[in-house]
Amino acid sequence: MLKKYPKLKWGLISVVSLIIVVISFGIWFVSLLPTGEMEERYKTLETSSIDTIPYLFEDVIPKRGKILAVVTSTNTMGSSGKSTGYELTELSRAYYVFKANGFEVAIASPLGGKPPVVIDDDDMGKFDHAFLNDSIAQYKTSHTIAMKDVVAEEYQAVFFVGGKGAMFDFPDNKAIQSLVRDYYQSGKVIGAVCHGPAALVNVTLDTGRPLIENKKVSGFTNKEELFLIPDAKTIFPFLLQDKLAAQGAQFNEGAMYLEKISQDKNLVTGQNPWSTWLLAETMITQLGYTPKYRQITAEENAVKVLEVYENQGLKKAKALIETMASQENTPMARDFIASHSIIAAMQGDIGRFFSLIGLVSYAKSKSNND
Questions:
Q1: What's the whole-number mean pLDDT along residues 96-102?
Q2: Nearest Cα to Cα of residue 188 among 295, 67, 13
Q3: Cβ–Cβ contacts within 10 Å for residue 242, how many?
Q4: Is residue 199's pLDDT more than 70?
Q5: What pLDDT was estimated at residue 329?
Q6: Contacts of 89 (CB under 8 A, 6+ apart)
Q7: What is the pLDDT of residue 17?
Q8: How far apart are CA 344 and CA 268, in angstroms?
């Protein structure tokens, strides 16, 4: 039959060849990932607790005061039916930075009680699992203080946790607006990460001007939002970047899904979940203290490599990988870099995709764990 239809024959050969190439590439791609390391990491994660993380129990700092963390009470993105809540990793990591640096942390939400939470298994680390296994932290998240009942004078700082639900119940909450206005004008520290800066967009100072007018701020960008949710403009009441800019903010945009924070006096804002560590430690600095030493995570080191790649190119990124590989206790999650190569492919940037795959391959060649 194939002899009668040569075009069919060559068509089948082309399809089979393409399938073989795709499968071969997939096998090669997976071989670049630290699968053994990842399996070991996942095995130990779920049993993580505050008693297994030296940062939390060694060299304990005496109590310095209290910080209020605020999470969303919204469980659905408008009328879309899509579930939402606060991002666990954005709360847990900041929570433990504050605790390790001597601050008691209270947790509030617009409605109080037990708010909805978003847990992304792919992003969970030891601090996040420790938070889930921490009975005190879990009690606080199950019994959050309603914003109307918060005694603002008790706290030295406030931190607004991200999560897409914040876009719906932070902007128009009068208790949030009052607390933010008073804190900013009195010099108390205000932090907000990812969608958390939605708490700032409708705050007016006693001068009658918007709080964020002419302030350098970061938050979840339009590019990040629309990549994840193409119809975000019809789901959310506004896009955060657009709203901040419309209020006169100097929006400080970093690379997609990489660390970026902005500080304008006592206002500290971060672009996305990967900005949480630096943002929380910057808040500690603004409070007048040197942050306690914390071993940088493998994911944070991967973020550093990607930032060098973005700003200085492939050669410098490889040099940083080589430096990290030569140092003890400097883990680097090359699976995180691989995830960014997939993002590039989804955006149709094939050159960037292969460049990042090359970076992952180079990281594997320098790894001592494979």
A1: 98
A2: 67
A3: 13
A4: yes
A5: 85
A6: 120, 123, 124, 125, 128, 273, 276
A7: 43
A8: 29
3-state secondary structure the chain: CCCCCHHHHHHHHHHHHHHHHHHHHHHHHHHCCCHHHHHHHHHHHCCCCHHHCHHHHCCCCCCCEEEEEECCCCCECCCCCCECCEEHHHHHHHHHHHHHCCEEEEEEECCCECCCEECCHHHCCHHHHHHHCCHHHHHHHHCEEEHHHCCHHHCCEEEECCCCCHHHHCCCCHHHHHHHHHHHHHCCEEEEECCHHHHHCCCECCCCCECCCCCEECCCCHHHHHHHCCCHHHHCCCCHHHHHHHCCCEECCCCCCCCCEEEECCEEEECCHHHHHHHHHHHHHHCCCCCCCCCCCHHHHHHHHHHHHHHHCHHHHHHHHHHHHHCCCCCCCHHHHHHHHHHHHHCCCHHHHHHHHHHHHHHHHHCCCC
Strands 86-87 and 267-270: unpaired
Question: Higher model confidence: residue 21 or residue 244?
Answer: 244
The position carrying tokens 């008691």 is 104
Q: Report all structural domains of the chain as residue ranges with CATH numbers, in order of start.
A: 29-44+296-366 (no CATH), 59-286 (3.40.50.880)
Token code pair at residue 184: 């900013």
Neighbours of 330 (CB within 10 A): 13
Q: Can you give the pTM of this predicted structure?
A: 0.89
Residue 296: phi, psi to the nearest 5?
A: -65, 140
The distance in angstroms from the start CA to the end CA of the chain is 49
| Sign of the CA dihedral with 50 first, then 54, 58, and 60 last | negative
